[in-house]
Design goal:
- Keywords: Membrane, Transmembrane, Transmembrane helix.
- The structure is a single chain.
- It contains 3 helices and 9 strands.
- Strands 2, 3, 5, 6 and 7 form a 5-stranded antiparallel β-sheet that branches.
- With about 120 residues, the chain is α+β, with helices and mostly antiparallel strands.
- The chain is elongated and about 55 Å long.
- Helix content is about 30%, strand content about 40%.
- The chain starts with a strand and ends with a strand.
- α2 packs antiparallel against α3.
- The protein folds into 2 domains: about 80 residues, Sandwich (Immunoglobulin-like); about 35 residues, no CATH class.
Length: about 120
């Protein structure tokens, strides 16, 4: 069985590769805007990806499926806002910005198990 996996995570997640797991076993890495072929035995397989502590929920695929890995649009604003708030808080010496930034980043860490979304095309 072969499944085609493409990655389109944009600049936010594009600095490092993500690991592709097929049926719980590593099958390679994907760079941004890259495509790979996952090979598994049987008619179906379970695919998931991860990058450090950021993960996706597994998806069940069949032979010949095309799937795309993207960032979860719900969490990107928290990540960007958190980083910007921490930088601005440090530069402007405003503790409130630092607190808001840390809260945003804690939300991202709590929700990191659904950072990537895998969808069938």
């Amino acid at each position: 069985m072969e499944v085609y996996i493409s990655r389109s995570t944009g600049p936010l997640g594009g600095l490092s590769s993500i690991k592709v797991k097929v049926n719980g076993e590593d099958q390679g890495k994907l760079k941004n805007n890259d495509v790979t072929v996952a090979i598994a035995e049987g008619d179906t397989a379970e695919i998931a990806v991860n990058q450090s502590f950021f993960r996706s929920k597994p998806i069940t695929v069949s032979d010949g499926d095309n799937v795309e890995v993207t960032l979860n649009p719900k969490f990107s604003p928290f990540y960007i806002g958190g980083v910007l708030a921490i930088i601005l808080g440090g530069l402007m010496k405003m503790p409130l910005f630092l607190v808001v930034g840390m809260v945003c980043l804690v939300i991202v860490l709590v929700m990191s198990s659904n950072w990537f979304v895998i969808t069938k095309k």
